[in-house]
Amino acid sequence: AQKVTQAQTEISVVEKEDVTLDCVYETRDTTYYLFWYKQPPSGELVFLIRRNSFDEQNEISGRYSWNFQKSTSSFNFTITASQVVDSAVYFCALSDQTGANNLFFGTGTRLTVIP
Amino acid sequence: DAGVIQSPRHEVTEMGQEVTLRCKPISGHDYLFWYRQTMMRGLELLIYFNNNVPIDDSGMPEDRFSAKMPNASFSTLKIQPSEPRDSAVYFCASSSVGVPGNTIYFGEGSWLTVV
């Protein structure tokens, strides 16, 4: 069965600190995809990144970076030099062959960046 | 390009009333999804359509819920009669091909409160 675990319920950091959000997933499929979404206080879900199971290269986009490690079934998300605008709930999600067209979401991590 | 458009953004209704939520997917997207977000259950898939045809409605909680997609640019999610436990954020989303593999883009959500 598919499962996404975000063990950190809430994190608070001071502005300009770096922060890492953890994501651990479970799937029996060899082909799967991992996603991160951001939900700011306004409520919408904003797509951040997609990764497939065959590409373990880390990715960097501005202050955001993602570390995918199949050996530990983790797909962690790091924000460098955090800003107040980064305050949001961040969701990690998984889709795989068995789950067909479903995205399985973790429970989210609420990040608060204190000015 | 316009994203997924949902209406209403907020709705407060009395128990027993009919609620209709509306969605316009991104133009050219063949897949449309309805998700529900609650504190207890997080984000869960209710139903999805491919080319206007319902493919999987196993997530629809009960017969009070129904969804239609009369054409490629419009879908509705109806709750009749509504109950307080239906209070949640309902997200519509679309993608150009089926997950796994492709990104699902979400609307801003419809925040439903049933009193």
Summarize the structure.
The complex is a heterodimer of chains A (115) and B (115). Chain A is 0% helix and 53% strand. Chain A is an all-beta fold and 115 residues long.
Write the layout of secondary structure elements.
The complex is a heterodimer of chains A (115) and B (115).
Chain A: E1 3-5, E2 10-14, E3 19-21, E4 24-26, E5 32-39, E6 46-52, E7 59-61, E8 64-69, E9 74-79, E10 88-96, E11 104-105, E12 109-114
Chain B: E1 5-7, E2 10-13, E3 19-24, E4 31-38, E5 42-50, E6 53-56, E7 65-71, E8 74-79, E9 88-95, E10 105-106, E11 110-114
Parallel strand pairs in B: 2-11
Antiparallel strand pairs in B: 1-3, 3-8, 4-5, 4-9, 5-6, 7-8, 9-10, 9-11
Description:
- The complex is a heterodimer of chains A (115) and B (115).
- With 115 residues, chain A is mainly β.
- Chain A contains no helices and twelve strands.
- In chain A, the strands form three sheets. In chain A, strands 2, 5, 6, 10, 11 and 12 form a six-stranded mixed sheet that branches. A four-stranded antiparallel sheet of chain A has the order 3-9-8-7, with no helix packed on it. A two-stranded antiparallel sheet of chain A has the order 1-4.
- Chain A is globular, with a radius of gyration of 14 Å.
- The mean pLDDT of chain A is 93.
- Chain B is mainly beta and 115 residues long.
- Chain B is 0% helix and 54% strand.
- In chain B, strands 2, 4, 5, 6, 9, 10 and 11 form a seven-stranded mixed sheet that branches. In chain B, strands 1-3-8-7 form a four-stranded antiparallel sheet, with no helix packed on it.
- Chain B is globular, with a radius of gyration of 13 Å.
- The mean pLDDT of chain B is 93.
- The interface between A and B is medium-sized, with 26 and 25 residues.
